[in-house]
Design goal:
This protein is an alpha/beta fold and about 270 residues long. It is built from 9 helices and 10 strands. The strands form 2 sheets. It has a 7-stranded mixed β-sheet with strand order 6-5-4-7-8-10-9, sandwiched between helices. A 3-stranded antiparallel β-sheet has the order 1-2-3. It binds S-adenosylmethionine (SAM). S-adenosylmethionine binds next to helix 4, helix 5 and strand 5.
């Protein structure tokens, strides 16, 4: 896999990415997407870290970027930006009119890409405290606020932080399913967006198939058919390559929220 480091990282982050020593398992190791791991040389010696143990990933500066964006060639944030910005402009809005709720924000890569396209206000939310700390460490000042917790059950201080903002855009990139964000949290975030606001998210194509058991396929189809969201853009794309070198196909959905998701639509989960 080739190394791509053409991103607009700060020199500090760029240096951290360049200096990391990592090794991946052999190709054709046959592991599932939520089992992928890497070994990385840290101050404490070589450590094996599972990608889905995000808290452990984010504490190593540059590891997420090197692994996901350089080695695995993930371009999902750019894909979402490429689809969202023209849609906004076509609707006669300016990027600086948006206040984005960035769900599963991680260390801020997605918001960083969108800031590069002119969006200025972001509030991040992630389940891991280490994600918030990494965003502050690697991209200080990017988020107006960063909330940590489960959106369906936030601690009071985090809820009051979030309540200070009103949102007209939801982004959620590479964070739905796989034991990460469940449909209930996605619905709670969607319901925080004002009617007429934007929703821009990606989801693995398997979770959109008719035999999906995560609950996302039914929920998203219902959102589109029963008027919660206008699905103006719905595009399959290669999210990244896997440890085995296979292309992982996701779908990007961009549309406008028309009404809240009622609780009853989640009853099957
Ligand atoms: C693959 S990372 C994607 C990060 C970022 N959106 C990006 O594309 O670079 C998935 C993120 O979802 C977060 N996450 C997992 N479960 C969550 C939940 N229930 N609520 C909020 N964030 C969650 C993880 O901590 C992780 O930061």
């Amino acid at each position: 896999m080739s190394q791509l480091t053409t991103e607009p990282y700060t020199s500090h982050l760029h240096e951290a990415i360049q200096s990391l020593e990592v090794a991946l398992p052999v190709l054709d190791s046959g592991m599932d997407q939520d089992e992928e791991w890497i070994v990385v040389n840290t101050e404490c010696g070589w450590q094996k870290i599972r990608l889905h143990d995000y808290g452990d990933v984010y504490v190593v500066p540059g590891l997420y970027e090197k692994w996901v964006y350089d080695l695995f060639q993930c371009r999902s944030p750019q894909k979402v930006a490429d689809l969202l910005l023209p849609a906004i402009q076509e609707a006669g809005q300016a990027p600086e009119d948006l206040t984005v709720l960035d769900l599963g924000a991680g260390n801020g890569y997605v918001a960083d890409v969108l800031r590069g396209r002119g969006i200025e206000r972001f509030v991040g939310i992630d389940i891991f405290e280490q994600a918030a700390a990494a965003a502050q460490r690697d991209r200080p000042g990017l988020y107006n606020d960063y909330v940590v917790g489960d959106l369906t059950d936030l601690p009071a201080d985090q809820e009051s932080l979030l309540a200070q903002h009103s949102f007209n855009c939801l982004t959620c990139v590479a964070a739905l399913g796989f034991g990460d964000i469940p449909p209930s949290v996605f619905a709670a975030a969607f319901n925080r967006i004002e009617n007429g606001g934007w929703a821009a998210f990606t989801i693995k194509s398997d979770f959109m198939s008719k035999d999906d058991r995560s609950g996302f396929s039914r929920l998203i189809r219902r959102m589109l058919s029963d008027g919660a969201m206008d699905g103006d853009v719905h595009e399959p794309f290669v999210h990244r390559v896997s440890t085995d070198g296979n292309e992982l196909v996701y779908e990007a959905l961009i549309g406008r929220k028309r009404r809240d998701i009622p609780g009853g639509w989640l009853a099957f989960n």
